Amino acid sequence: MSKHDEIAEIVEKYCGELAEYSLSYNNKRYWTFYSYKTFPADKKSNLLKFDKNLFEADMAAMYSIDNGVINPDAEKCKDGIVFMLSGFYIRTAGQLKGYTFIKYSAIDDIEVKGKKELHLTLNVQTNDFWKQEYLDISIDYYAEPLKKILTEIIEIDRKTDTSYTTESQTGIVKGINQKNNREAYFKGQISGYKRASREYQIKLQKQADAFLANRNLWKKKQSEYEALLDEYEQTIIELQTCIEQSASPEYREMMDSTKAYKERLEELAY
Description:
By secondary structure, the protein is α+β, with helices and mostly antiparallel strands. The protein is built from seven helices and nine strands. The protein has helices at residues 3-18, 143-157, 182-190, 198-213, 217-220, 222-245, 249-267; strands at residues 31-35, 59-65, 81-84, 87-90, 99-103, 107-113, 117-122, 134-138, 171-173. The two termini are 16 Å apart.
């Protein structure tokens, strides 16, 4: 199972509990769960409302109120949470615009305060605009299920390297209005092309060669083997995007090589 699928499965398991408790407007508000597979492909660029550096292919799952991201007229997704491969986006109390991006690797401890607040102890340096060693997240739904979600995702995250998936550090981020800023949209996607670089391809091939040289190694390190296959799958997605936007033959050569390595790795399981 890929990391995308593992995260989506965890979020879906607990998201119903998140929506059981809501005080705003004193009426029922409708929450919607999307995995990276069910999120409408033609709406993925709307995810840049969360962060202009967000790379769409790294989205694993989203849970939000009132289809805020899906609605093209909505400037923001109120109370929405987007779970990426390396971290999650959430709006905390007092934030009128923008979101806070929190890397899973930045979270050292999670404490529930009351019903609707999480206290996160952070273990890494944050960006220049937001320097704190902790973060209190006030939300309009149960905090305990969110803690469960994050705790399980963090366990998965510790087994894989996703440092290359985003240029955003833990801290406040600002998205863009996708309709009015196409240039920023394309610049934001550049951060995702790191896996499509020659340097990253060499890194993947070294890891693959280790498994291919010892056919029994994948059985001993199955989680690493599956994580490597997932990285190859995402690299292929990003190379395809590069090919669509550039006529450079290098991307096609890298695509052919990447697919060949992925197929050889998959053969180890048979």
